[in-house]
Amino acid sequence: MMEMITIGVLDLQGGVREHLHLLSQISNVRALSVKKKEDFNNLDGLILPGGESTTISKLLNIFELKDIIINLNKEEIPIWGTCAGMILLAKEIAGTSTSHLNLMDIKVKRNAYGNQLASFKSKKVIPKISKKELPLVFIRAPYITNKNKKVKTLLKLDGKIVAAEQDNLLATAFHPELTTDLRVHKYFVNKVKAD
């Protein structure tokens, strides 16, 4: 029988329920919302959801979770950041000298496509994830403006990097959890299983 894996979704703010809902549809996955220190014990993978990156970062400090997530990365536990989660992972944020978790060798531009009104949908093939088009939902999305050579680009949209991977880290500027499509979540689950 396939072994169960446990994936936590950081539950401080943002699209937590949506990630949990999609993960619950994938076999051999136990999905948990995590917000207290003890919730992070025995995780096989972690998702940092979309939301407001500055707010989530402040809450990470208040609940003293920052070092716990940094240590998960040191243990090479797969971590996936969607939208605000991508900003949290980045080592550099354009226009500011501060960063949040400082884990992934990328520079991101916040709200790169403009305000809420500039939210949009698209469909693209991400070859490493699926040979068929995936629905992409962008809401006040960031994109990657610069990256280290260790970072692999998974998808560019209009010349801008909107999905990338570095070792155990995955970052997407779009929100797969706001669709009914499981393929990006399955890709992350397989990354966790391969770990």
From TrEMBL:
PROSITE patterns: GATASE_TYPE_1, PDXT_SNO_1, PDXT_SNO_2
Domain of life: Bacteria
One of the GO biological process terms: L-glutamine catabolic process
Organism expressing this protein natively: Halanaerobacter jeridensis
Family, per entry: Belongs to the glutaminase PdxT/SNO family.
Function: Catalyzes the hydrolysis of glutamine to glutamate and ammonia as part of the biosynthesis of pyridoxal 5'-phosphate. The resulting ammonia molecule is channeled to the active site of PdxS.
Protein name as it appears in the record: Pyridoxal 5'-phosphate synthase subunit PdxT
Family annotation (Gene3D superfamilies): 3.40.50.880
Catalytic reactions on record: L-glutamine + H2O = L-glutamate + NH4(+); aldehydo-D-ribose 5-phosphate + D-glyceraldehyde 3-phosphate + L-glutamine = pyridoxal 5'-phosphate + L-glutamate + phosphate + 3 H2O + H(+)
Subunit architecture: In the presence of PdxS, forms a dodecamer of heterodimers. Only shows activity in the heterodimer.
Binding annotation for L-glutamine: 51-53, 110, 139-140
Keywords noted in UniProt: Glutamine amidotransferase, Hydrolase, Lyase, Pyridoxal phosphate
Entry's EC annotation: 4.3.3.6, 3.5.1.2
Pathway(s): Cofactor biosynthesis; pyridoxal 5'-phosphate biosynthesis
Matching HAMAP family: PdxT
Active site, renumbered: 83, 175, 177
InterPro entries, A to Z: Class_I_gatase-like, PdxT/SNO, PdxT/SNO_CS
Pfam families linked to this entry: SNO (PF01174)
A Gene Ontology cellular-component term: cytosol
GO molecular function, one term: pyridoxal 5'-phosphate synthase (glutamine hydrolysing) activity
